[in-house]
Amino acid sequence: MFCWPLFIAPGPAPAAHTADAPLIFLVTMPVLLAVVLAEMSSGGIDPRALAMLGVLSAVNAGLRPLGAGTAGIETVFFLLVLAGRVFGPGFGFVLGATSLFASGLLTAGVGPWLPFQMIASGWIGLGAGLLPRRVTGRAEIAMLAAYGVLVAYVFGFLMNLWFWPFTAGADTQLSYEAGAPVLENLHRFAVFTLVTSTFGWDTGRAVTNLVALVALGPAVLTVLRRAARRAAFEAPVAFTPPNKPHKPHKPHKPHEEHEEHTHAPHPKSAGIDTGDGADGHRPAAARNRPG
């Protein structure tokens, strides 16, 4: 989508593709809805997590006007990186897209660039959620800061690429040349973005991300992780059916009862004298003995 100038020849006029933005926007919104529904159905986002998504989108939309338009300072990306890190890639993608959409409405920044900004920001949040989980402590902050610097330049690169054919004109060494080989147009674009954006706006964005992530990252991560423990952002717990109940074992008799049963006298056998004097119960030898 961003790389269309390298592969698709434009129409008769450079503005022939300016009408593509509304179509991309119409495609982006169902994708966001599908991601949210998929996360909710899998248990990754519950109603409390959805409320957290709305709160962070509003906060990010409010942060962006503080620096947008001033030497490339962008205050929207550091919170996006931290939230994606804590809440996961799906949450990060939706947060990136909704944050830029809300800030566009708040600052009257709705235009053909908005859907491209939404998708690029969504990728930033998604990438933050895919970073290695085993890294913690200062190493984690260093990793997030390096990632913030990298995505600052990647965001500028992508945003320059989609509108480059409409901005550079038609008769300069930096202009897009329809029908030229891909490598030639890529070389022209690289020179264009280095001269117009990389050493200016993109570097300002990278420095902002670096300073914000190093200075505020530990505290914000602590707050976000505390909020994550109160909402469901992990896979749902699987409940297995209980095992068949075992038959209860009969209780053992007390030790005294066991001893009493062991030492009880055996009953007299038939024909043995029991001491009652009855001849019928006397042995035969005793009955035949002379008195």
UniProtKB/TrEMBL annotation:
Biased composition (Basic residues): 244-253
Protein name: ECF transporter S component
Region span, Disordered: 235-291
Natural source organism: Streptomyces boncukensis
GO molecular function: transmembrane transporter activity
Domain of life: Bacteria
One Pfam family hit: ECF-ribofla_trS
Compositionally skewed regions (Basic and acidic residues) per UniProt: 254-263
Keywords: Membrane, Transmembrane, Transmembrane helix
Residue stretches spanning the membrane: 25-45, 66-87, 141-164, 206-224
